[in-house]
Design a protein that fits this description.
Blueprint (H helix, E strand, L loop, with lengths): L3 H10 L3 E7 L5 E7 L3 E3 L3 E7 L3 H8 L2 E8 L4 E12 L2 H7 L17 E15 L2 E6 L1
Antiparallel strand pairs: 1-2, 1-5, 3-4, 4-7, 5-6, 6-7, 7-8
């Protein structure tokens, strides 16, 4: 599978949904569908918006190990990224990914205490297409 990282970048760039994986207190994986990253730096870093009060935030504060999966369901192609998730609550991070209309979820605006940023930093990945998988480092 040639150009696996470029193919993964293209796949991620057109998806509207991502699946974020965390680890619960019993060591079980927990998966949740989320909106695609608001900001992305290649395959290395993805920024997501979420509620500070969410179960996922509590899990990442205890165990930052995470995965993010993107897929094209029509063509049955996917990429899994493995790495760590940070919970960011500083003003600069919150402003970085804030969008008009977010008050629908965070009524107090960008300074809402229930609004935070999840910063995912990937270490490796695995790309699947055409009945074949390939792992790669980032």
């Amino acid at each position: 599978m040639s150009n696996v990282k470029e193919r993964a970048e293209r796949l991620i760039g057109v998806q509207s949904t991502a699946f974020v994986g965390s680890v619960d207190s019993a060591g079980y994986p927990n998966i949740k569908a989320v909106l695609a990253p608001r900001v992305r730096e290649g395959l290395r870093t993805c920024y997501f918006t979420t509620n500070t009060s969410s179960m996922r935030v509590q899990q990442f504060r205890v165990n930052p190990r995470a995965s993010v999966y993107f897929c094209d369901q029509q063509r049955f192609i996917g990429v899994m990224l493995l790495g760590t998730m940070e919970v960011l609550e500083d003003a600069a991070s919150k402003e970085l990914i804030w969008r008009e209309g977010d008050t629908q979820y965070y009524s107090l605006g960008v300074t809402d205490p229930d609004y935070c940023v999840l910063k995912f930093t990937a270490e490796s990945g695995r790309f699947y297409s055409s009945l074949s998988s390939e792992s790669f480092d980032i």
